[in-house]
Amino acid sequence: MSQGISGNARPTIFNRGTVRDERSEVVREIEFVAHSVDPAEAGAYLVAMCNVEEPPPEPWVPMRPFSERVVGRPSRCTLPFLGAVRSFCHVPENVDFRLPLEGERADEPPEGFFTLYEEHLMRTRLWFPIPLVIVEFLNRLDVSISQISPRGIKHLVGLLVLGYERGMELTADYLEAFLTLSRVGTDRMYGFKPRNFMEVLKGFPQGDRGWKSYFFYVRLDQASVAVEWLPSFRRLWGVGVHNPFPPFPEDLCIVRDLLRGSPLFWGHFSPERVRAAVGAHQSRFRSSIDNVMGASFEDTSSSAVYATGQSSVRGSLDAEEDGEPTVDDPVWMD
């Protein structure tokens, strides 16, 4: 091997050929020689010059003990580990969990309950009550939250957190403009992928391939879902609707660029970061409620109009769907 060539260098066919002169023809001999650039060195150079960042590892979560599938039991969830999920994710006692019974299914939860998966709580940072904008967005797509993969929930949580950190509350119009529904497998499961030129989040780690086997039921009440959306919350599974012409708020590109201005790999979304962002959002909301209540007592004869976001397609639904978040303390899904 030539001097100065790394032992990890890859072979290539680019070599000075030997010229033969037979019958007035020129023929070049080609042989494999070691390349002069080490791929590891090239990768390090690109990282240094292009400011490429490696995705950080996902924060630690408790490991689920192995549990065999029991005949007649539709889910592999167990009460001991579901208790560990409740403790690790700081789920309060007024959020009621229930294990599925024989004959029950994920796509048809019993009356008064909806389906979630252990991965939804352990790895996506979702909090209770489920944010209004997520419920509205999923209703537009005619799907239940239990039809969305953990990676899809991470897209929603990440966008909301980035907005909270900048003092913005994204509406369903923005979520629909950023994301489009995509199938996961063949059993009416869905995820999200960014629309063209709208990617914000990246670096999602590979999840548990068997997450669909670990489902349970959550009681549908004001502890789990904001009271404004309880009547319209979708429990049962539907056929997802793809909107080829999503809303396009006039400041969409500005909002997209603002959201891209901080660490965007999912590994950066630690429980502490999510808690701080949502806590700041809740604090701002409480302040705005106090200001509004003070103004109403000062002058009850005048009326004020408030807007939570711009809507370019569903203007007739704004008054009904652009609800304000509840002021209850959020429950963190670490």
TrEMBL record:
Biased composition (Acidic residues): 318-327
Region spans: Disordered: 311-334
The protein, known as: Aminotransferase-like plant mobile domain-containing protein
